[in-house]
Amino acid sequence: MSSAELTPAEAARWAARAGLPLPADRHAVVAATADHIHSVVAVLRELDLGDTPPALAYRAEQETHDAAV
Amino acid sequence: MQPYELPLSAAAEAIRARQLSPVELADSVLQRVERVEPHLRAYVAVTAEHARRAAREAEDEIAAGRHRGPLHGIPMALKDLIDVAGVPTSASSRVRDGHRARADSTVAARLSAAGALLIGKTHTHEFAYGLTTPQTGNAWDTGRVAGGSSGGSAVAVAAGTATFGLGTDTGGSIRVPAALNGVVGLKPTYGLVPRHGVTSLSWSLDHVGPLTRTVEDAALVLTALAGHDPRDPASLTTPATDYRPTVGTDLTGLRVGVPRNYYFEHVDVEVEAAVRCAIDQLAALGAHLVDVEIPMTRYIQATQWGLMVPEATAYHERTLRTVPELYQADVRVLLEAGELMPAGDYLRAQRARTLMRREWARMLREVDLIAAPAVPATAVKAGQETITWADGTVENVSDAYVRLSSPANITGVPALTVPVALDAAGLPIGMQLLGRPLAESVLLRAGHAYQQTRPAPTLAPAV
């Protein structure tokens, strides 16, 4: 297990902090799934995002305008 | 040919010319439902009485000279995430037991105003959070997956138990089942079709769109669906458009991008051969093929997950705390694990999406559309969890099905899947056409030209 991986107990604690108390029989499976999701999304840390803003309000009209410039 | 076998455009023309009545068409489709639905299980609920009553009203209106247009009297299936007033929106989930929609969704209201008849509500992978729709059998082989999450609508259209259907698409949920069942599926530009009254999986990735037997049919449905609705904050203010493609098959001057990376990697050899053959057909119609490099492919899955996982968990926040045991196991664990994703990961995905949109806009200045496989493999057997590729790589089935679809969700560009062939096992293969934002007409023109030069699509054997 790498240091970034969650133990079942840590998963339960994180979930509780998020307001979701997990029954004991959910701790291991949630930890494993959360670790898998983490391994997928962590790849984004390679990107140098600089001043790039989040695309929270996507609008195709803006995209069309950009493409026309 | 029985009325249920007619594609939308042919049925509409027959109704307009008074060679076919909406009552005859609805009766034919409902008889088809009685015959094949027990094997397919595409529907959550069939609204036969409602459909027959609406068909009689349509017949009376048309007889009185009030023909509303090409959807008047046409039987449709709506994915059961789409609200219809007075009817439950089950999301194919026990979590929604007792639900009843108070009002029509925008798309249901627009289709109703256009005169379409609701045959029933179709199965989705629970809350659209999956790629197989395990309740429903594939229309070509009921022992195989329907694809998802709009599996019920795709199977109904493929089997003739609806003349057209609507689905939703967050990572491929229209295009994947369309491809696996040999029908046309269109994911429009993000924001073109309002989502008000449609249960969300992930707000920033969700789209609503048609599933039909032909590209021309998809254009007819899109024309009725598109248009601004301020109740969807992403809704675009584009003017009303008639999307019906022009007659003719000449594609001279159209620049078709053929990806040299990503879209043909880890793709079944029969799928690749069929799609390349279809692309050659576009070239034979006059299109100019251009090699393109798909940008930022290493970050596609990470961006898709970084957006979808926390948004889906947020949508289900309350019920995950009150009735978690009512979710299916695969959906419940994803929703629970989503609680553990830091906000930083979500923002990083939104920033990566900004970069990806920019890079795709740059690529799409060089070509008018991109042609590629819709999914890397045909329908797998029900219960199969992984696909093993020729180089020994093992991939989760859902990851494989979503892989070629999600770029259009992340970037918001329109994407159309068109059936192009059957594999040696008799299972459908789809070609995906992706275009610039709001360039649906370009995709529909190319897809329609392609279909006009091929034998007319046939219904799935269904059982």
Overall description:
- The complex is a heterodimer of chains A (69) and B (463).
- By secondary structure, chain A is mostly helical.
- Chain A is 49% helix and 0% strand.
- Chain A has three helices and no strands.
- In chain A, α1 packs across α2 (27-41).
- Chain A is elongated, with a radius of gyration of 19 Å.
- The model of chain A is unreliable at 65-69 (pLDDT under 50).
- With 463 residues, chain B is an alpha/beta fold.
- Chain B has two domains: 3-299 and 343-452, Amidase signature (AS) domain (Amidase signature (AS) enzymes, Alpha-Beta Complex); 300-338, no CATH class.
- Chain B contains 15 helices and 13 strands.
- In chain B, the strands form two sheets. An eleven-stranded mixed β-sheet of chain B has the order 1-3-2-4-6-5-12-13-9-7-8, sandwiched between helices.
Quick recap:
The complex is a heterodimer of chains A (69) and B (463). Chain A contains three helices and no strands. By secondary structure, chain A is mainly alpha-helical.
How is the topology of this model organized?
The complex is a heterodimer of chains A (69) and B (463).
Chain A: H1 8-17, H2 27-41, H3 60-68
Helix pairs in contact in A: 1-2
Chain B: H1 8-16, H2 22-40, E1 43-46, H3 48-63, E2 75-79, H4 106-113, E3 117-122, H5 151-159, E4 164-168, H6 175-181, E5 184-187, E6 208-212, H7 215-225, E7 255-259, H8 269-284, E8 288-292, H9 300-315, H10 317-322, H11 329-338, H12 343-363, E9 369-373, E10 386-388, E11 394-396, H13 397-403, H14 406-411, E12 415-422, E13 428-435, H15 440-452
Parallel strand pairs in B: 2-3, 2-4, 7-8, 7-9
Antiparallel strand pairs in B: 1-3, 4-6, 5-6, 5-12, 9-13, 10-11, 12-13
Helix pairs in contact in B: 2-3, 7-15, 9-11, 9-12
Under the CATH scheme, which class of the largest domain in chain B? Alpha Beta
Number of domains of chain B: 2
Computed CA radius of gyration of chain B, to the nearest angstrom: 20 Å
Strand share of the residues of chain B?
Answer: 5-15%
Q: Report the sheet with the most strands of chain A, covering strand number, pairing sense and barrel closure.
A: none
Main beta sheet strand tally, sense and closure of chain B: 11 strands, mixed
